[in-house]
Amino acid sequence: MADVYKSGQGAPSHEFETRLSDRMADRFLKDILYPAFVNMEEKGKMVNGKAVQRVSADESAIVVEDYTSGKLIEPKSASETIETMNIDQKKVAHAYLDDFDALQSNYNLQDVYGDILGKKLAHVVDRDILAQVVNARTTLDAASFGGNAGEGIDLTSSNVLKILNTMTTNLSNLEVSVGGSIDKRMDSRFGLKAGFIAGSPNFVGAITEHFSGIETPEGDKDRKANHKATLILGYELHQTTSSLWTGVLTMSGQALADETITVKGVTWTFVAALTGAAGEVVIGGDAAGTQANFIAALNGAAGEGVTYSAVSTADRATLDGVSAVADGTNVAVTGLGANYIKVSTTMSEAANVWSKEKQHLLAGKRGCVDMVSQKEPMLDIAKEPRSYGVYLKSSCLYGRTMFKESQRRAVEVLINTAGF
């Protein structure tokens, strides 16, 4: 095709306006669950003060005996124990917003970032409350389903209802009625009193698959009444992605150069000496030394620049809530509010493998976790005197615990996540 432009002339140049969309991109923040099941009965008396104490009578001292006429009754001493919940959890989220950026933006940036701060702060509270699951008296694991104690249940649509029924049986054997709540002021969303389970999307998906194609008028009615919870076998089924996760990495064998460990998409590479690249871990003099160096690297602890190199800022943010401790030759990894974490390793030593990758789902009687919130998350806006801008701050002050009386009302459900 002949050139339509005259010799020495290029294509005509035009200026085109760039326009912003009418809305900002969606923000995929976690839903908050804890208000649906925590016990807030102590909140009213804790306008100030730093702790709540609860007194429990020692039931073991009270026994019923046969009485023999004329025989003296040996007195039994009665005693009480005192448990304390400290109001000591102080959390804050903050951001700086330049006045000129806010002026020139198409969007209400104060509202946008205020919403983000509030939801992220509430998520930290949510994951903290759900982590109380480790104090539950009853743990439901693979042992009840033909597997080994301490390992997660291989979740399927065929066994998911058995999980709920086994929970009820275990609680009943502890004289715990699932229905109702500890604080009688808590609402009953379905017109009746039900227990609860904080189910992961995989758990909820197994329930959905089980009932796929089955007419359940009561369940349909429940779903219409409350889109966040479904009533199944006497439990309000709530979906959350903030459950506790744990996994174990065995490191009994020595690592080799260029072998890797990946946690939540963040990769560390073993090296003989640091090269300056991000995410490197120095191979120790023995397996124990290498293990210690990796734990420090994952936690971002002392040793940066000597035994490991830091990961990127974005990767460190991804690891928020993830930590590790040594347990013999194992590395015990915990993910607060993680839901589940994808892990892997390329270590060639046969013993160096991941195992016991588990979600810890909290279930039981509503109110089994006590909470006092002295300062609810709310947005504070303060001018920065040294520049033109404002600080957006959101903070909260609370305490939480699972008192002994409530530990028997809670169930920890361990779900194997290795196949997720």
Entry summary:
This protein has 420 residues and is an alpha+beta fold.
Which descriptors apply to this entry?
single chain, 420 residues, alpha+beta, 9-stranded mixed sheet, 4-stranded mixed sheet, globular
Rg for CA atoms = 28 Å
Reading the helices and strands in chain order gives EEEHHEHEHHEEEEEEHHEEEEEEHE
Helix content: 10-25%
How would you classify the helix and strand content by structural class?
alpha+beta
Tally of alpha and pi helices: 8
Shape: globular
Mean pLDDT comes to 87
Q: Which strand-content bin applies to the residues?
A: 25-35%
Describe the structure.
With 420 residues, the chain is of the alpha+beta class. 20% of the residues lie in helices and 29% in strands. The chain has eight helices and 18 strands. The protein has helices at residues 99-104, 109-130, 160-173, 201-211, 217-225, 287-299, 313-318, 404-407, and strands at residues 51-57, 80-86, 89-98, 138-140, 195-199, 229-232, 235-239, 244-250, 260-263, 266-271, 280-282, 322-327, 330-335, 343-345, 354-364, 370-383, 389-401, 410-416. The strands form four sheets. Strands 4, 5, 6, 7, 8, 12, 13, 15 and 18 form a nine-stranded mixed sheet that branches. Strand 9 (260-263) and strand 10 form a beta hairpin. The longest helix has 22 residues, at 109-130. It is globular, with a radius of gyration of 28 Å. The model is unreliable at 215-227 (pLDDT under 50).
List the helices and strands and how they pair.
Layout: E1 51-57, E2 80-86, E3 89-98, H1 99-104, H2 109-130, E4 138-140, H3 160-173, E5 195-199, H4 201-211, H5 217-225, E6 229-232, E7 235-239, E8 244-250, E9 260-263, E10 266-271, E11 280-282, H6 287-299, H7 313-318, E12 322-327, E13 330-335, E14 343-345, E15 354-364, E16 370-383, E17 389-401, H8 404-407, E18 410-416
Parallel strand pairs: 4-18, 5-7, 10-11
Antiparallel strand pairs: 1-2, 3-17, 5-15, 6-7, 8-13, 8-15, 9-10, 9-14, 12-13, 15-18, 16-17
